[in-house]
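Task: fold both queries, return C-alpha coordinates.
Query 1:
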Amino acid sequence: MLKRRRPGAQKSRQGSAQDSAQDVEEETMDAVTTKSKHDTPDTHSHVVRPADMEWKKTRFPGCEVKGLLLDKATGLVTALMKFAPGATLPDHEHVKIEQTYVLEGKLVDKEGPAKGLSVGPGEFVWREAGSRHVAWTPEGGLMLAMFQVPNKFFEKDGRVTDISGADWDELWGSVSNQT
Protein backbone atom coordinates (compact mmCIF):
# COMPACT_ATOMS: atom_id res chain seq x y z
CA MET A 1 0.00 0.00 0.00
CA LEU A 2 1.33 3.41 -0.98
CA LYS A 3 0.52 6.25 1.42
CA ARG A 4 0.88 9.85 0.40
CA ARG A 5 0.24 12.97 2.43
CA ARG A 6 -1.98 15.39 0.56
CA PRO A 7 -0.22 18.65 -0.28
CA GLY A 8 -0.55 21.06 2.64
CA ALA A 9 -1.53 18.34 5.16
CA GLN A 10 0.31 18.41 8.48
CA LYS A 11 1.45 15.58 10.74
CA SER A 12 -0.29 15.34 14.11
CA ARG A 13 1.03 17.59 16.88
CA GLN A 14 2.69 14.67 18.60
CA GLY A 15 4.66 14.03 15.42
CA SER A 16 3.46 10.44 15.33
CA ALA A 17 3.09 8.39 12.21
CA GLN A 18 -0.70 8.33 12.70
CA ASP A 19 -2.41 10.71 10.34
CA SER A 20 -6.04 11.70 10.00
CA ALA A 21 -7.91 9.88 7.24
CA GLN A 22 -8.55 13.08 5.32
CA ASP A 23 -4.86 14.02 5.25
CA VAL A 24 -3.53 10.74 3.83
CA GLU A 25 -4.46 9.18 0.54
CA GLU A 26 -4.06 5.41 0.27
CA GLU A 27 -3.85 3.61 -3.01
CA THR A 28 -2.65 0.26 -4.19
CA MET A 29 0.80 0.53 -5.69
CA ASP A 30 0.84 -1.16 -9.06
CA ALA A 31 4.58 -0.58 -9.27
CA VAL A 32 4.39 1.46 -12.48
CA THR A 33 6.35 4.69 -12.66
CA THR A 34 4.62 7.97 -13.33
CA LYS A 35 5.54 10.62 -15.89
CA SER A 36 5.38 13.61 -13.53
CA LYS A 37 8.04 16.11 -12.53
CA HIS A 38 10.03 15.29 -9.39
CA ASP A 39 9.48 18.56 -7.55
CA THR A 40 6.97 17.58 -4.86
CA PRO A 41 6.95 14.93 -2.13
CA ASP A 42 4.32 12.99 -4.12
CA THR A 43 6.55 12.76 -7.19
CA HIS A 44 9.96 12.50 -5.53
CA SER A 45 9.78 9.30 -3.48
CA HIS A 46 7.48 6.31 -3.85
CA VAL A 47 7.13 3.95 -0.89
CA VAL A 48 6.10 0.40 -1.76
CA ARG A 49 4.99 -1.94 1.02
CA PRO A 50 5.55 -5.50 -0.20
CA ALA A 51 4.05 -6.96 3.00
CA ASP A 52 0.70 -5.48 1.90
CA MET A 53 0.95 -6.91 -1.63
CA GLU A 54 -0.26 -10.28 -2.85
CA TRP A 55 2.12 -12.73 -4.49
CA LYS A 56 1.25 -13.11 -8.19
CA LYS A 57 1.76 -16.46 -9.86
CA THR A 58 3.75 -16.50 -13.06
CA ARG A 59 3.33 -18.99 -15.88
CA PHE A 60 6.28 -20.91 -14.47
CA PRO A 61 5.22 -23.44 -11.79
CA GLY A 62 6.47 -22.54 -8.32
CA CYS A 63 7.50 -18.99 -9.29
CA GLU A 64 5.64 -16.01 -7.81
CA VAL A 65 6.39 -12.31 -7.98
CA LYS A 66 5.68 -9.00 -6.27
CA GLY A 67 6.40 -6.17 -8.69
CA LEU A 68 8.03 -3.30 -6.82
CA LEU A 69 8.86 -1.09 -9.81
CA LEU A 70 8.05 -1.21 -13.50
CA ASP A 71 8.96 1.61 -15.85
CA LYS A 72 7.27 0.72 -19.13
CA ALA A 73 9.13 3.47 -20.99
CA THR A 74 12.58 2.05 -20.20
CA GLY A 75 11.85 -1.56 -19.22
CA LEU A 76 13.35 -1.13 -15.74
CA VAL A 77 11.98 -3.79 -13.36
CA THR A 78 12.55 -4.47 -9.66
CA ALA A 79 10.72 -7.42 -8.12
CA LEU A 80 10.64 -9.76 -5.18
CA MET A 81 10.64 -13.31 -6.51
CA LYS A 82 9.59 -16.34 -4.51
CA PHE A 83 10.37 -19.86 -5.68
CA ALA A 84 9.06 -23.19 -4.40
CA PRO A 85 11.58 -26.00 -3.89
CA GLY A 86 12.62 -27.33 -7.30
CA ALA A 87 11.16 -24.41 -9.28
CA THR A 88 12.89 -23.63 -12.58
CA LEU A 89 13.05 -20.51 -14.71
CA PRO A 90 13.48 -22.00 -18.18
CA ASP A 91 15.91 -20.92 -20.88
CA HIS A 92 16.16 -17.14 -20.77
CA GLU A 93 18.48 -14.29 -21.69
CA HIS A 94 19.28 -11.20 -19.69
CA VAL A 95 19.03 -8.54 -22.39
CA LYS A 96 20.85 -5.99 -20.26
CA ILE A 97 22.48 -6.32 -16.84
CA GLU A 98 20.48 -8.39 -14.33
CA GLN A 99 21.08 -8.20 -10.58
CA THR A 100 19.83 -10.61 -7.90
CA TYR A 101 20.23 -10.51 -4.14
CA VAL A 102 19.33 -13.83 -2.49
CA LEU A 103 17.40 -13.35 0.75
CA GLU A 104 16.53 -17.02 1.39
CA GLY A 105 17.26 -20.33 -0.27
CA LYS A 106 19.58 -20.90 -3.18
CA LEU A 107 19.69 -19.90 -6.86
CA VAL A 108 21.59 -22.33 -9.10
CA ASP A 109 22.47 -22.21 -12.79
CA LYS A 110 21.01 -25.50 -14.01
CA GLU A 111 22.17 -25.03 -17.63
CA GLY A 112 24.34 -22.53 -19.42
CA PRO A 113 27.99 -21.39 -19.37
CA ALA A 114 28.00 -21.05 -15.56
CA LYS A 115 26.28 -24.42 -14.94
CA GLY A 116 26.52 -25.30 -11.26
CA LEU A 117 27.03 -21.71 -10.05
CA SER A 118 25.19 -21.48 -6.71
CA VAL A 119 24.21 -18.24 -4.96
CA GLY A 120 22.94 -18.42 -1.36
CA PRO A 121 21.44 -16.17 1.31
CA GLY A 122 23.20 -12.84 1.67
CA GLU A 123 24.95 -13.22 -1.68
CA PHE A 124 24.54 -11.00 -4.72
CA VAL A 125 24.99 -12.01 -8.35
CA TRP A 126 24.89 -9.84 -11.43
CA ARG A 127 24.94 -11.06 -14.98
CA GLU A 128 26.29 -9.43 -18.11
CA ALA A 129 23.98 -8.29 -20.89
CA GLY A 130 23.35 -11.20 -23.24
CA SER A 131 23.93 -13.90 -20.62
CA ARG A 132 21.66 -16.90 -21.11
CA HIS A 133 20.87 -19.77 -18.74
CA VAL A 134 18.29 -21.91 -16.94
CA ALA A 135 17.87 -21.00 -13.25
CA TRP A 136 16.80 -23.49 -10.57
CA THR A 137 16.00 -23.28 -6.87
CA PRO A 138 16.61 -26.76 -5.38
CA GLU A 139 15.37 -25.71 -1.92
CA GLY A 140 13.21 -22.78 -2.98
CA GLY A 141 14.09 -19.20 -2.35
CA LEU A 142 13.27 -15.53 -1.96
CA MET A 143 15.18 -12.99 -4.05
CA LEU A 144 15.24 -9.32 -4.90
CA ALA A 145 15.75 -9.10 -8.67
CA MET A 146 16.49 -6.03 -10.77
CA PHE A 147 16.40 -5.95 -14.56
CA GLN A 148 17.28 -3.07 -16.84
CA VAL A 149 14.95 -4.68 -19.40
CA PRO A 150 12.73 -7.76 -18.87
CA ASN A 151 14.22 -11.16 -19.74
CA LYS A 152 13.73 -12.93 -23.05
CA PHE A 153 12.36 -16.48 -22.61
CA PHE A 154 13.01 -18.94 -25.44
CA GLU A 155 10.00 -21.17 -26.05
CA LYS A 156 10.27 -24.70 -27.46
CA ASP A 157 8.21 -23.61 -30.49
CA GLY A 158 10.77 -20.90 -31.37
CA ARG A 159 8.87 -17.91 -30.00
CA VAL A 160 10.67 -15.37 -27.81
CA THR A 161 8.50 -14.11 -24.95
CA ASP A 162 8.62 -12.17 -21.70
CA ILE A 163 7.71 -13.63 -18.30
CA SER A 164 3.99 -13.18 -19.06
CA GLY A 165 4.24 -15.14 -22.32
CA ALA A 166 3.73 -12.06 -24.52
CA ASP A 167 5.87 -11.52 -27.63
CA TRP A 168 9.08 -9.95 -26.32
CA ASP A 169 9.85 -7.82 -29.38
CA GLU A 170 6.36 -6.30 -29.46
CA LEU A 171 6.51 -5.23 -25.81
CA TRP A 172 10.17 -4.53 -25.15
CA GLY A 173 12.05 -4.43 -28.47
CA SER A 174 11.93 -0.65 -28.77
CA VAL A 175 13.17 -0.01 -25.21
CA SER A 176 16.01 -2.55 -25.37
CA ASN A 177 17.76 -0.43 -28.01
CA GLN A 178 17.79 2.69 -25.80
CA THR A 179 21.10 3.53 -24.15
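Query 1 returned. Query 2:
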Amino acid sequence: MRMVFTEVMGAQERLEEAFPDDDIVMFDGPLDKDELVHEAQGASVLSVFIRTRVDKDVIDSLPELRMINTRSTGFDHIDAEHALEKGMAVTHVAEYGPHVVAEHAFCLLLACARDLVQADRSVKEDKRFDFHPFRGIELRDKVLGVLGTGRIGSEAIRIARGFGMKVMAFDMYPNEALAQEFAFSYHSLEEVLGSSDFVTVHLPLTDDTRGLIGREELQRMRKGSILINAARGAIVDEGALREALDGGHLRAAGVDVIANESDPGASPLISSERIIITPHIGFYTGEAVDRMLEHSIDIIRSFRSGDIKGRVPVEYVSPSKVR
Protein backbone atom coordinates (compact mmCIF):
# COMPACT_ATOMS: atom_id res chain seq x y z
CA MET A 1 0.00 0.00 0.00
CA ARG A 2 1.28 3.46 -0.89
CA MET A 3 1.21 5.94 1.99
CA VAL A 4 2.30 9.57 2.07
CA PHE A 5 3.21 11.32 5.34
CA THR A 6 3.90 15.04 5.73
CA GLU A 7 5.38 16.91 8.72
CA VAL A 8 6.75 13.73 10.28
CA MET A 9 8.97 15.62 12.75
CA GLY A 10 11.79 13.08 12.82
CA ALA A 11 9.57 9.97 12.92
CA GLN A 12 10.90 8.36 9.73
CA GLU A 13 12.49 5.39 11.48
CA ARG A 14 9.37 4.64 13.54
CA LEU A 15 7.12 4.79 10.47
CA GLU A 16 9.40 2.49 8.49
CA GLU A 17 9.36 0.08 11.41
CA ALA A 18 5.55 0.23 11.64
CA PHE A 19 4.93 -0.32 7.92
CA PRO A 20 7.88 -2.38 6.63
CA ASP A 21 6.06 -3.85 3.63
CA ASP A 22 4.42 -0.67 2.37
CA ASP A 23 5.50 2.01 -0.07
CA ILE A 24 6.03 4.95 2.28
CA VAL A 25 6.87 8.49 1.21
CA MET A 26 7.75 10.90 4.04
CA PHE A 27 8.39 14.63 4.25
CA ASP A 28 9.75 16.55 7.23
CA GLY A 29 7.71 19.67 6.49
CA PRO A 30 4.31 20.56 5.05
CA LEU A 31 3.55 20.36 1.33
CA ASP A 32 1.71 23.00 -0.67
CA LYS A 33 -1.18 22.06 -2.95
CA ASP A 34 0.85 21.32 -6.07
CA GLU A 35 3.48 19.36 -4.16
CA LEU A 36 0.85 17.35 -2.35
CA VAL A 37 -1.05 16.44 -5.51
CA HIS A 38 2.19 15.38 -7.20
CA GLU A 39 3.65 13.37 -4.33
CA ALA A 40 0.42 11.67 -3.26
CA GLN A 41 -0.54 10.26 -6.66
CA GLY A 42 -1.39 6.59 -6.26
CA ALA A 43 -1.53 6.77 -2.49
CA SER A 44 -4.26 4.98 -0.57
CA VAL A 45 -3.44 6.74 2.70
CA LEU A 46 -2.47 10.36 3.25
CA SER A 47 -1.32 11.28 6.76
CA VAL A 48 -0.75 14.97 7.43
CA PHE A 49 -0.37 17.48 10.21
CA ILE A 50 -1.85 20.93 10.75
CA ARG A 51 0.19 22.88 8.17
CA THR A 52 -0.65 20.67 5.20
CA ARG A 53 -4.00 21.69 3.74
CA VAL A 54 -6.09 19.00 2.06
CA ASP A 55 -8.80 20.93 0.24
CA LYS A 56 -11.40 19.95 -2.36
CA ASP A 57 -8.99 20.35 -5.27
CA VAL A 58 -6.41 18.09 -3.64
CA ILE A 59 -9.02 15.47 -2.84
CA ASP A 60 -10.42 15.51 -6.38
CA SER A 61 -6.90 15.14 -7.79
CA LEU A 62 -6.16 11.94 -5.87
CA PRO A 63 -8.58 9.31 -7.24
CA GLU A 64 -6.94 6.36 -5.47
CA LEU A 65 -6.98 7.98 -2.02
CA ARG A 66 -9.07 6.01 0.48
CA MET A 67 -8.18 7.55 3.85
CA ILE A 68 -7.00 10.94 5.06
CA ASN A 69 -5.46 10.92 8.52
CA THR A 70 -4.36 13.95 10.49
CA ARG A 71 -2.06 13.41 13.44
CA SER A 72 -3.91 16.10 15.37
CA THR A 73 -7.24 16.55 17.09
CA GLY A 74 -8.32 19.52 14.97
CA PHE A 75 -9.08 18.82 11.32
CA ASP A 76 -10.07 22.22 9.92
CA HIS A 77 -7.14 21.97 7.46
CA ILE A 78 -9.01 19.15 5.70
CA ASP A 79 -12.20 19.47 3.65
CA ALA A 80 -13.66 16.57 5.60
CA GLU A 81 -17.18 17.05 4.29
CA HIS A 82 -16.07 16.72 0.66
CA ALA A 83 -13.85 13.74 1.44
CA LEU A 84 -16.70 11.94 3.18
CA GLU A 85 -19.02 12.68 0.27
CA LYS A 86 -16.50 10.95 -1.99
CA GLY A 87 -16.52 7.88 0.24
CA MET A 88 -13.14 8.45 1.89
CA ALA A 89 -12.45 7.83 5.54
CA VAL A 90 -11.29 10.90 7.45
CA THR A 91 -9.56 10.22 10.76
CA HIS A 92 -7.88 12.20 13.50
CA VAL A 93 -6.19 11.67 16.85
CA ALA A 94 -9.11 12.34 19.15
CA GLU A 95 -7.03 12.13 22.30
CA TYR A 96 -3.26 12.36 22.63
CA GLY A 97 -3.33 13.96 26.05
CA PRO A 98 -5.73 16.88 26.27
CA HIS A 99 -4.06 18.01 29.48
CA VAL A 100 -1.05 19.25 27.51
CA VAL A 101 -3.03 21.99 25.69
CA ALA A 102 -4.95 22.87 28.85
CA GLU A 103 -1.65 23.23 30.71
CA HIS A 104 -0.41 25.66 28.07
CA ALA A 105 -3.66 27.63 28.23
CA PHE A 106 -3.03 28.12 31.95
CA CYS A 107 0.58 29.01 31.24
CA LEU A 108 -0.72 31.87 29.09
CA LEU A 109 -3.39 32.75 31.65
CA LEU A 110 -0.91 33.00 34.52
CA ALA A 111 1.55 34.96 32.42
CA CYS A 112 -1.18 37.49 31.58
CA ALA A 113 -2.49 37.69 35.14
CA ARG A 114 0.96 38.35 36.59
CA ASP A 115 2.49 40.46 33.78
CA LEU A 116 5.19 37.83 33.49
CA VAL A 117 6.62 38.75 30.09
CA GLN A 118 6.73 42.48 30.84
CA ALA A 119 8.37 41.86 34.23
CA ASP A 120 11.02 39.65 32.68
CA ARG A 121 11.79 42.26 30.01
CA SER A 122 11.97 45.01 32.62
CA VAL A 123 14.70 43.19 34.51
CA LYS A 124 16.68 41.90 31.54
CA GLU A 125 16.36 44.79 29.09
CA ASP A 126 15.88 47.82 31.34
CA LYS A 127 18.02 46.49 34.21
CA ARG A 128 15.24 47.45 36.67
CA PHE A 129 14.30 45.36 39.67
CA ASP A 130 11.08 47.16 40.61
CA PHE A 131 7.81 45.35 41.32
CA HIS A 132 5.60 48.46 41.30
CA PRO A 133 4.58 48.38 37.61
CA PHE A 134 3.47 44.74 37.78
CA ARG A 135 0.54 44.46 40.16
CA GLY A 136 -1.14 41.21 39.18
CA ILE A 137 -4.46 39.55 39.84
CA GLU A 138 -5.13 36.27 41.61
CA LEU A 139 -6.90 33.20 40.26
CA ARG A 140 -8.43 31.96 43.50
CA ASP A 141 -12.18 32.68 43.73
CA LYS A 142 -12.18 34.23 40.25
CA VAL A 143 -14.61 33.06 37.55
CA LEU A 144 -13.23 31.14 34.59
CA GLY A 145 -15.45 31.01 31.52
CA VAL A 146 -14.72 27.90 29.46
CA LEU A 147 -15.92 27.95 25.87
CA GLY A 148 -16.00 24.34 24.76
CA THR A 149 -16.04 21.48 27.26
CA GLY A 150 -14.66 18.66 25.16
CA ARG A 151 -11.51 16.83 26.17
CA ILE A 152 -9.29 19.92 26.37
CA GLY A 153 -11.94 22.14 27.93
CA SER A 154 -12.61 19.46 30.52
CA GLU A 155 -8.94 19.43 31.47
CA ALA A 156 -9.00 23.22 31.77
CA ILE A 157 -11.90 22.92 34.19
CA ARG A 158 -10.02 20.33 36.25
CA ILE A 159 -6.98 22.63 36.47
CA ALA A 160 -9.17 25.62 37.35
CA ARG A 161 -10.63 23.71 40.27
CA GLY A 162 -7.11 23.09 41.54
CA PHE A 163 -6.57 26.86 41.59
CA GLY A 164 -9.78 27.38 43.54
CA MET A 165 -11.57 29.06 40.65
CA LYS A 166 -15.29 29.10 39.93
CA VAL A 167 -16.29 27.83 36.50
CA MET A 168 -19.00 28.75 33.99
CA ALA A 169 -19.19 27.05 30.61
CA PHE A 170 -20.65 27.35 27.13
CA ASP A 171 -20.88 24.45 24.70
CA MET A 172 -23.12 23.56 21.80
CA TYR A 173 -23.30 20.05 23.22
CA PRO A 174 -23.43 20.34 27.04
CA ASN A 175 -21.99 17.48 29.09
CA GLU A 176 -24.17 17.38 32.18
CA ALA A 177 -22.23 14.51 33.74
CA LEU A 178 -19.07 16.61 33.55
CA ALA A 179 -20.92 19.60 35.01
CA GLN A 180 -22.04 17.50 37.94
CA GLU A 181 -18.57 16.03 38.50
CA PHE A 182 -16.86 19.43 38.65
CA ALA A 183 -19.77 21.45 40.07
CA PHE A 184 -20.21 23.99 37.27
CA SER A 185 -23.14 24.99 35.09
CA TYR A 186 -23.73 25.75 31.44
CA HIS A 187 -24.92 29.15 30.28
CA SER A 188 -25.38 31.07 27.06
CA LEU A 189 -22.30 32.53 25.41
CA GLU A 190 -23.40 36.03 26.39
CA GLU A 191 -23.80 35.06 30.05
CA VAL A 192 -20.39 33.39 30.22
CA LEU A 193 -18.63 36.32 28.60
CA GLY A 194 -20.35 38.86 30.83
CA SER A 195 -19.72 37.04 34.10
CA SER A 196 -16.13 35.77 33.79
CA ASP A 197 -12.84 37.24 34.95
CA PHE A 198 -10.98 34.99 32.52
CA VAL A 199 -12.30 33.35 29.34
CA THR A 200 -10.51 30.42 27.71
CA VAL A 201 -11.47 29.15 24.25
CA HIS A 202 -11.45 25.41 23.55
CA LEU A 203 -13.91 25.11 20.66
CA PRO A 204 -13.25 23.41 17.33
CA LEU A 205 -13.16 25.62 14.25
CA THR A 206 -16.31 25.06 12.21
CA ASP A 207 -18.54 27.23 10.05
CA ASP A 208 -20.52 28.00 13.20
CA THR A 209 -17.56 28.96 15.39
CA ARG A 210 -15.55 30.95 12.84
CA GLY A 211 -15.61 34.55 14.07
CA LEU A 212 -17.75 33.56 17.05
CA ILE A 213 -15.89 35.99 19.32
CA GLY A 214 -16.29 39.29 17.51
CA ARG A 215 -16.48 42.94 18.50
CA GLU A 216 -19.86 42.62 20.20
CA GLU A 217 -18.84 39.54 22.16
CA LEU A 218 -15.56 41.10 23.30
CA GLN A 219 -17.41 44.18 24.53
CA ARG A 220 -19.69 41.88 26.54
CA MET A 221 -16.69 40.65 28.50
CA ARG A 222 -16.01 42.19 31.89
CA LYS A 223 -13.82 45.26 31.79
CA GLY A 224 -10.33 44.24 32.84
CA SER A 225 -10.85 40.56 32.05
CA ILE A 226 -8.43 38.31 30.17
CA LEU A 227 -9.01 36.23 27.04
CA ILE A 228 -7.06 33.04 26.30
CA ASN A 229 -7.25 31.22 22.96
CA ALA A 230 -5.41 27.92 22.52
CA ALA A 231 -7.95 26.52 20.06
CA ARG A 232 -8.02 28.07 16.57
CA GLY A 233 -7.18 31.64 15.64
CA ALA A 234 -10.14 32.23 13.33
CA ILE A 235 -12.62 31.75 16.19
CA VAL A 236 -11.68 35.23 17.46
CA ASP A 237 -11.88 38.40 15.35
CA GLU A 238 -8.28 39.61 15.64
CA GLY A 239 -9.03 43.20 14.68
CA ALA A 240 -11.76 43.44 17.27
CA LEU A 241 -9.50 41.86 19.89
CA ARG A 242 -6.79 44.42 19.16
CA GLU A 243 -9.35 47.21 19.60
CA ALA A 244 -10.52 45.78 22.93
CA LEU A 245 -6.92 45.62 24.16
CA ASP A 246 -5.88 49.05 22.89
CA GLY A 247 -9.00 50.65 24.31
CA GLY A 248 -8.37 49.16 27.75
CA HIS A 249 -11.55 47.10 27.86
CA LEU A 250 -9.54 43.90 28.25
CA ARG A 251 -6.55 43.71 30.57
CA ALA A 252 -4.65 41.28 28.38
CA ALA A 253 -4.90 38.28 26.09
CA GLY A 254 -2.83 35.17 25.54
CA VAL A 255 -3.05 33.21 22.31
CA ASP A 256 -1.32 30.13 20.97
CA VAL A 257 -3.03 30.48 17.59
CA ILE A 258 -3.66 33.20 15.02
CA ALA A 259 -5.94 33.31 11.99
CA ASN A 260 -3.17 33.01 9.38
CA GLU A 261 -0.26 31.14 10.90
CA SER A 262 1.61 31.08 7.59
CA ASP A 263 1.86 34.91 7.65
CA PRO A 264 2.08 36.03 11.29
CA GLY A 265 3.22 39.51 10.32
CA ALA A 266 -0.20 40.19 8.85
CA SER A 267 -1.94 39.73 12.20
CA PRO A 268 -3.00 42.94 13.98
CA LEU A 269 -2.09 41.25 17.25
CA ILE A 270 1.63 41.04 16.59
CA SER A 271 2.56 44.57 17.60
CA SER A 272 0.44 44.75 20.76
CA GLU A 273 2.23 44.84 24.11
CA ARG A 274 -0.94 43.64 25.83
CA ILE A 275 -0.99 40.22 24.27
CA ILE A 276 1.24 37.17 24.67
CA ILE A 277 1.56 35.07 21.51
CA THR A 278 3.12 31.63 21.23
CA PRO A 279 3.49 29.80 17.87
CA HIS A 280 0.94 26.97 18.28
CA ILE A 281 3.06 25.09 20.81
CA GLY A 282 0.23 24.02 23.10
CA PHE A 283 0.40 20.44 21.87
CA TYR A 284 4.16 20.36 21.41
CA THR A 285 5.80 18.23 24.04
CA GLY A 286 7.95 15.21 23.36
CA GLU A 287 5.47 12.95 25.07
CA ALA A 288 2.44 14.30 23.16
CA VAL A 289 4.14 14.08 19.76
CA ASP A 290 5.03 10.44 20.45
CA ARG A 291 1.44 9.68 21.44
CA MET A 292 0.07 11.36 18.30
CA LEU A 293 2.32 9.24 16.13
CA GLU A 294 1.47 5.96 17.88
CA HIS A 295 -2.28 6.69 17.72
CA SER A 296 -2.00 7.46 14.00
CA ILE A 297 -0.11 4.24 13.35
CA ASP A 298 -2.87 2.37 15.16
CA ILE A 299 -5.53 4.17 13.10
CA ILE A 300 -3.81 3.37 9.80
CA ARG A 301 -3.51 -0.28 10.82
CA SER A 302 -7.22 -0.30 11.64
CA PHE A 303 -7.94 1.03 8.15
CA ARG A 304 -6.08 -1.93 6.69
CA SER A 305 -8.12 -4.33 8.82
CA GLY A 306 -11.43 -2.73 7.81
CA ASP A 307 -12.45 -1.62 11.31
CA ILE A 308 -11.45 2.03 11.17
CA LYS A 309 -10.70 3.86 14.39
CA GLY A 310 -10.52 7.60 14.95
CA ARG A 311 -13.16 8.81 12.50
CA VAL A 312 -13.80 12.55 12.75
CA PRO A 313 -17.07 13.41 14.55
CA VAL A 314 -19.85 13.97 12.03
CA GLU A 315 -21.47 16.70 14.15
CA TYR A 316 -18.41 18.91 13.62
CA VAL A 317 -18.23 18.21 9.88
CA SER A 318 -21.78 19.44 9.25
CA PRO A 319 -22.65 21.06 12.58
CA SER A 320 -26.00 22.40 13.62
CA LYS A 321 -26.16 26.12 14.24
CA VAL A 322 -24.81 27.47 17.53
CA ARG A 323 -27.57 27.63 20.08
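Both queries returned. Flag for query 2: The CA atoms of residues 119 and 286 lie 29 Å apart.
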